[in-house]
Amino acid sequence: MADAHDADAFAIEPSASGRLLCGGCAPDDVCRLGVxxxxxxxxxxxxxxxxxxxxxxxxxxAHGGWIAAVFDDVxxxxxxxxxxxxxxxxLAVEYLRPVPVERPLxxxxxxxxxxxxxxxxxxxMTLAPTGPPLATARAELRTRRPDHFARHRDWLVHRPPPHQxxxxxx
Length: 170
Ligand SMILES: CCCCCCCCCC(=O)SCCNC(=O)CCNC(=O)[C@H](O)C(C)(C)COP(=O)(O)OP(=O)(O)OC[C@H]1O[C@@H](n2cnc3c(N)ncnc32)[C@H](O)[C@@H]1OP(=O)(O)O
Prior knowledge:
Blueprint: E1 35-41, E2 44-49, E3 56-58, E4 61-62, H1 64-80, E5 86-95, E6 105-115, E7 118-127, E8 135-143, H2 148-157, H3 162-165
Antiparallel strand pairs: 1-2, 2-6, 3-4, 5-8, 6-7, 7-8
The protein binds decanoyl-CoA.
């Protein structure tokens, strides 16, 4: 885990239980989105996923933001096996059918192409264990430049403080 002075040392590494978790989930060693890695199948990484009811957007169906967040995680994980320092540059989701909450889902993710810092990845979500896709996603990832977070902090330091950035109330 990175310290406050060296944010660029941050890298996703296996947790105490061997999971790959984002910075928010790592301290509790559990994925709050309900994603569990479940092995590899040919070119695909397989994930067992359950949408908790608290993530519902409509009656017993998943919020689209949860679906997008799950794809962001699994697409990054597909490349994290090779490169621990990644960011998502773009993410496109197709919502094909409603996704039920509290039902086992399967997500398959794969690397489609990798050249230098650029990764193209894709994934599909089905009702477990197989079936027609409920949603699919494509993303472009970038290997972080070594000073990615330092540049961000430097950029932020030169923004106006929040109370000055807000327009005055009329
Ligand atoms: C469960 C285990 C795994 C789960 C982990 C979860 C991971 C999920 C992954 C994520 O969700 S990461 C969070 C979402 N993504 C981001 O925050 C990325 C934000 N975007 C960027 O940092 C840049 O756009 C990006 C590095 C993707 C750009 O890379 P490029 O190689 O295409 O472009 P380039 O480096 O030339 O920079 C393009 C512009 O961005 C600016 N830029 C790049 N890096 C920057 C930086 N670090 N700080 C500030 N500005 C930055 C850069 O100055 C330039 O500005 P201008 O267009 O004005 O010239």
